[in-house]
Amino acid sequence: MSHPTTAAVPHHRVVIVGGGQAGLSMSACLSAAGVEHVVFEKHTAMHVWRTQRWDNFCLVTPNWQCALPGHPYAGNDPHGFMKKDEIVAWLDGFRRKVDAPLREGVAVQRVRPRASGGFDVQYAQGGDTLHCTADHVVVASGGYHVPIVPRMAERLPADVLQLHSEQYRNAAALPEGAVLVVGSGQSGAQIAEDLHLAGRRVLLAAGDAPRCARFYRGRDVVDWLADMGYYEMPVEKHPLREGVRDNTNHYVTGRDGGRDIDLRRFAAEGMQLFGAMEGVDGTTLRFKPNVAEVLDRADAVYNSINASIDQYIAREGIDAPPGGRYEPVWAPAEERGQIDLREAGIAAIVWCIGFAPDFGWLDAPVFNGRGQPQHHRGVTALPGLFFLGLPWLHTWGSGRFSGIARDAQHLAGLIAQRPQQAAAGVPAARAAIALA
Which domain of life is it from (predicted)? Predict the structure, then answer.
């Protein structure tokens, strides 16, 4: 008769879930504080940057904002915009420098708080289900997990190729014919531009994304906003408070040295613009007839940001080139609420409407009704559970290369100050039962 093993499961002071820039930043700060930890990564470190970016992807924020812990941008183009391969090389350098206790190919399946304090962690590795315990868990896996593709996609003809933005690589990889891009956030606007510049016929179903200028009054808008203190503003002082976390990012590009993305100019050059896509009836695609309104709102945000820069320049007495308002270069002659995809020659659709969070593996009462974590600067109401790398976790830069270091240092300081529990020493069989 066999008996269950009584070997103690491993215990860690901290388990970090996710081996991207956030997880390795957390590791760097914990190592500096002398706190034992392990990093579990489902795939490979930084895999998103290698596998979920199109070929011509580049940063939309200037290189000088890239500043992970102990690893600032050190190239010769601080006001440029790194391309995909350059980003990957920079991140690889960070990984080597951190030399984290990283375990790749480890998929965390469940995290559950223990009655005595700390957490039980169940994970899969190499086909085995394993367990450990931890005093603290830092969730650094981001908030973009499940690609959003609407159910109406199921009603599209089978011969129309459908991709999510994470699958798009380049224009040549798509079949001949027109391409419909659904969504005009950062990915949608830049993918539409990528296809447009490649000479493809593009139709764009635009959403409510705002836009901003790349350069204004002699400088990158990011430089102006940095001087104005915008990137230091904590979420609780933002006019929208936590509501800012739901905002769609402004579309702009760093491509070819950086420029505006002006959908009106694309339309004047032949791109077809529509309102938000609402439905599919056979080969008929239905759109909200509001493209003029969408463009006007995006331009209003564009002009509002520039006006705030004008006010700052005047208040500080800065000598800068003259500014001005954006004036539309194109306006729709009519609103089209539907088209026939066969008549339009649409051969492919790229869905660029974002991702949904998936924290189903985290069995903890720290989420709101939409499945989003509730926290203050990454600290949840459950002792020992933290989040890192989410948009507006603390400031604008929290979900970007510019703000993760500060957030990680803050959390590492809190963890280092918490009393260390004795290693759990829970028998493996008991741990498996607790997590079942």
Answer: Bacteria
Asked whether 374 and 367 are in contact (CB, 8 A), the reply is yes
pLDDT tens per residue, range 75-108: 999 999 999 999 999 999 999 999 999 999 999 9
| Integer-rounded Cα radius of gyration of the chain | 24
- Strand-pairing partners, residue 139, are 17, 387
User: CA-to-CA distance for 200 and 214, rounded, in angstroms?
Assistant: 25
C-alpha distances (whole Å) from 415 to each of 17, 142, 342, 385, 404 are 15, 20, 59, 10, 16
Q: How many whole angstroms separate alpha carbon 351 and alpha carbon 343?
A: 20
Question: pTM of the entire structure?
Answer: 0.92
Q: What is the largest CA-CA distance in the chain?
A: 86
Does residue 207 contact residue 252 with C-beta atoms inside 8 Å? no
Between 3.10.620.30, 3.40.1010.10, 3.40.50.300, 3.50.50.60, what CATH number should domain 149-351 receive? 3.50.50.60
| 346-351 and 178-182 strand pairing | parallel
pLDDT digits (tens, 9 = 90+) for 154-186: 999 999 999 999 999 999 999 999 999 999 999
Q: What is the mean pLDDT of the chain?
A: 93
**Domain segments of the chain as ranges:** 11-145+357-435, 149-351
What are the CA-CA distances from residue 329 to residues 19, 191, 299, 334 (Å)? 45, 21, 11, 16
Q: At what angle do helices 84-98 and 21-32 cross, to 10 degrees?
A: 30
If one counts every other C-beta atom within 10 angstroms of the C-beta of residue 391, the result is 19
Q: Is 148 helix (H, G, I), strand (E, B) or coil?
A: coil
Q: Regarding the domain with residue range 11-145+357-435, which homologous superfamily does it belong to in the CATH classification?
A: FAD/NAD(P)-binding domain (3.50.50.60)
